[in-house]
Amino acid sequence: MGNIMISIKRFFGNKNTVTILGVIIGIVVLYFGYNIRVKQAVEPQQIPYAKVEIASNTLITDSMIGMIKVSKSFVDQTPNLVTSKAQLIGKYVSYDTTVAEGGLFYKTEVMTEEQKPNYITVDLEECHTVYSLAVNMHTTYANSIMPGDYIDLFVSATNDSGQVIVTKFIESIKVRDVRDSDGVSVFSSASKNREPAELIFSVPNKMFILLTKADNIRSNSIKIFPVPRNQEYTENHGETKITSTEMQEFIESKSDDTFNTIISDIDQKCYNE
Predict the structure, then answer these.
(1) pTM for the complete prediction?
(2) The CATH number of the domain where 48 resides is what?
(3) Which of 21, 48, 133, 244 could anchor a disulfide with 199, C-beta 3.0 to 4.6 Å?
């Protein structure tokens, strides 16, 4: 027993032996540490994704969320990635954001009830006013016009000769909201089917006045309707296409002085531009 202890002391007393053992131990530690890190990096982790397209300001529910496996390294390298359902359910998709079907969720794209802005007036341009247009399932292309989409606004009317005239009145308007007859956002909940009753968008003040005047002209069968930017409007039989300026002049000619008070409430500088 004494001889064994002496041999062990001599073995560990040899500087070369200690160095070799240190190298071996270091290699073993590095090997196992590397394998652990690799395993962690490639080990799949479940994160949420959108099972359906979710529009701006929509309440996120469990039925909208699926789970998908990705590598942990992907999660670690993707900033602001939402990694659990608990971070989503009961929150809303942020203003001016749409989560695509199959898309992942990011913390910068969701908000709580308390964080919701008055998105109808968010980023409202100078000299613009929010306008509400009456619509239905037909004029919204089977409720396919969503907040954040762009539309062209058309106006048609019957002139004094009985001729139907039509024009693209305003181009490229961003839809701020779509609401039902109760004033509730149509896309606020995927669990309820709501029918569109009004489109909310902003227009230059001058055009707001003209649209308001057109709304209140009882004769001449004036109609105001949206067309999605990715759609083409084809004139119906008997319709005559005119310019936007010509339609503006027609509306002015059929209006009275009722709306002078409205104009007086709007910045004259904006109106005259």
Answers:
(1) 0.60
(2) 3.90.1210.10
(3) 133
